[in-house]
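thought: fold this chain, then report.
action: predict
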Amino acid sequence: MKDSFDILIDHIEKIVPLSSEEKEFIIRHFHLKRYKKHQYIVNEGERTKYHYFILSGLTKLVYLDQNGKEHIVSFAMEDWWESDFYAFYTKTLATLSLICLEDTTVLALSHDDYIKLCNENPKMLKFFLEKANYGFLGMQRRILSFLTLNTSQRYEHFLKQYPKLLNRLPKSQLAAYLGVSRESLSR
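observation:
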């Protein structure tokens, strides 16, 4: 079985090749953290200290509106990165919360370590740029699906895009993500 840092290195090497020295340098900047189901990794109103690489588990990133209604921005599972990115990069208070839907293990990267990795290793700058670009593309697709697709089309789109998530998500969470009631989703 691979250890946590081997999983991270394999993930990075899908985009950029790394020397042994680069691998050692990268690993030194991450911290292993474990969370239980329902535990908050990021809390709205607090500092977002880390950018998280998910080793195992499942999370949801949520926004709580003025009426207390939860809006699911995204889900993240193994091999995905997640955080309140706006708060992380701007060093402001979080407006989103990151909550575990399953017991979750992550590798956490602080803002200072992120900057150090990017400044001292151009390969990591390339890696993070590519990951950010794909995240941006995913968010654009999600926005367009809300603007142009009906409920069943959004559901089909979700199934095609994230087949591995379907059996791991409670129907209520999937319905909230798709912007429909649980009853509508059941139909």
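thought: worth noting. The beta strands are 30-35, 40-42, 50-56, 58-64, 70-77, 81-82, 97-100, 104-110.
final: tokens above.
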